[in-house]
Design brief:
With 169 residues, the protein is α/β, with parallel strands linked by helices. It has helices at 56-59, 78-86, 98-104, 135-143, and strands spanning 74-77, 95-97, 114-117, 127-130, 132-133, 147-150. The longest helix has 9 residues, at 78-86. The N and C termini lie far apart (80 Å).
Length: 169
């Protein structure tokens, strides 16, 4: 037996039905698609439509919420800060603020602020003036003899603009 002689067993595979070849073929006129309309056309499907019944995604309960104030912080780990201090790229004598971190290359940009994370270990005594920090990060800085000052960035409420109406329709 050769590869080119392989074939399915006789009678196990049915041939393709050719539709739209006249009424006498039994699959003519509507080509077995029923009558007219969107579903009789090719490539159209009504996703999520359940025949007028309330769709499943509307019947299920909704959970959680999306915050209208989405802060995007630049994250800084203790290990990375210590690495830059060891390389003498960050001056620990004064207060280290967000602009100093950007200038020294510790972070690329401060975005909505800088948040200090507790991954790694800090051995240098530093005073940080940043937007936010985790409890473990604050504890690690204070253990090394430093201090973390959190900036008060109060968030302004989102004000939606009213559409202009000039009275014409």
């Amino acid at each position: 037996m050769k590869l080119n002689e392989l074939a399915p067993k006789e009678g196990s595979v049915k041939g393709r039905m050719r539709v739209g070849r006249g009424i006498g073929s039994g699959k003519g006129k509507t080509s077995a698609k029923g009558q007219k309309g969107q579903k009789a056309r090719s490539g159209v499907a009504i996703k999520g439509f359940e025949g007028g019944q309330m769709p499943l995604y509307q019947r299920l309960p909704k959970r959680g919420f999306t915050s209208r104030v989405d802060n995007n912080f630049a994250e800084l780990n203790l290990a990375k800060l210590q690495q830059f201090i060891d390389a003498k790229k960050v001056d620990t004598k004064g207060t280290i603020d967000e602009d100093a971190l950007v200038a020294s290359g510790v972070i690329r940009r401060k975005l909505d602020g800088v948040r200090l994370l507790g991954n790694g270990e800090l051995t240098s005594k530093v005073t940080l003036n940043i937007t936010g920090a985790t409890k473990s990060a604050i504890a690690a800085v204070e253990k090394a003899g430093g201090k973390v000052e959190i900036l008060d960035k109060s968030v302004a409420p989102v004000v939606r603009k009213k559409p202009k109406s000039d009275g014409s329709m």
